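Practice problem: predict the structure.
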Amino acid sequence: MPARAALEPFLTVPPADLSVAEVPDGALRRASGELRDMRKPVEMAVIEPKTRKINLWSRKAWLFLVAYSLTHEGTLTQDGTVWRVPLATLIKDARFGSKDRRHLKESIKECQRTLVEWSGSARDSMTGQTRLWSSTQLLGSVEFVEDERGRACIEWSLPPVLLRQLREYKHFYMVSLEVVAEIKLNCTLALYEIICRYKTNPNGLTMRRPWREWIPLLTGESDESAELRIDMKAGKGASKVRQRYGEYRYFRRDVVQRAVAELNEVQQEFTVESVPLTRGRTVEELQFRVVARDAHASTVKEHTSPRPARRHNAPTADAPALARAIQTGASEHFASQLYQEYGPEQLAHSAESALTTPGVVNPAGFMVAKLRQQEAAKTPSQAAASAPSPAASKDNTPAAPAVRTPPGSLRESLDFALTRYRNRLQVLAKSRWPQLSSDARTQYLHRFEREVVATTPYIRKDFQASGLKKPFVAAKFYLWLAEFQAHESGDGWTPSAEVLLAHMVGQVRAGETG
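Answer:
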């Protein structure tokens, strides 16, 4: 009994502290009402689930709960630091469009059940230690409570390892919560965080990984969860012989293309392109390239402004072939590149076809397409026999790079060109917008309101309240404007292969591809 009496203070649990400080409404918003940016450690840009699956609303709910935790001081209780926010505030900030709160609750619970890992990179200057690997669930305890005013609220805590990582980072990147709220696909949100981490890289490229390693990163489904799903659907053991997205083309079609397309649509800070890396004709690795739209804009200004023509020394032999190529609209420099790559006979024949075939709108693009068709139709012996000899380039012409297209099939090359083509149209539309008359701008805005705003409820309120001030509204508008103007006076939003090839010709000529 005396021993029991001595332990009594430790066996007595004090009453729970029910007065948890509430995160104020508007804690994540600027004075304009727009959501703020969020600062995150670079080590947490790539969250790889090791168990279960993170869905879109799990990601969104977690990001916003973490943002609340970093902008507002929590309440220290016997169970650790706890935060509380009205459910209505979370739903409004994250733009949760459904009234099914049970689904939101399940998404939040999924954060508790999902185990994630990340690697460290920074050495602690005080202790000299580097935390090389961390593993935890995304959320600690979670409670749904009804406060004294009858409002539904959510209370949560963060695992200590995760909270320390969020507070004691050495390097960070910025995520726009405004963009996060607008994203509708899980793969897009995962890609957006990765892009934000790498967008300041000088080469604009993300990390490079085998394409299969991107599957759990972008889909949010762990390998363990995928194997269980496949076994339940196709029979026990099926996952041993059946892989997710058996070929890269299916992963590209169902995940990569959709994520890239939506990410380019919901924001106007940068554009994203997938970069498959091949060995032979097989895609082995994947990374993404991010280009700031300001960089596109400066490139557009540079290439559309008058500038003195630069002359290049062209091969003197077979001058008629070069002359015919230049008549298609190709520059002397680019015609010299084609000459060195394909030889005078093919160049002359393709240029002649481009200039004499009726109905050709872009002769330069037609010429390039014709050259590639002829090259693809050759046997290896014919290709070797017709290749320009080394002596053909032993003149004053500097060695020019060959025309390059992204690796992969012709379909992939055309998709790549279409992405670049549409990005350029959006940049042009945005750069020319301030130069339009007020009447023209008013007409475009009225038409946009009739055709897009009226049928898109999630932007109607913001457009009517602040016009194009919100980034996602402006992104939607310039995308619509570019497409409208393309149909109105250009080659269309989805032009022919010849037009796309001509656009690629222009990029090579201006030094935009690389």
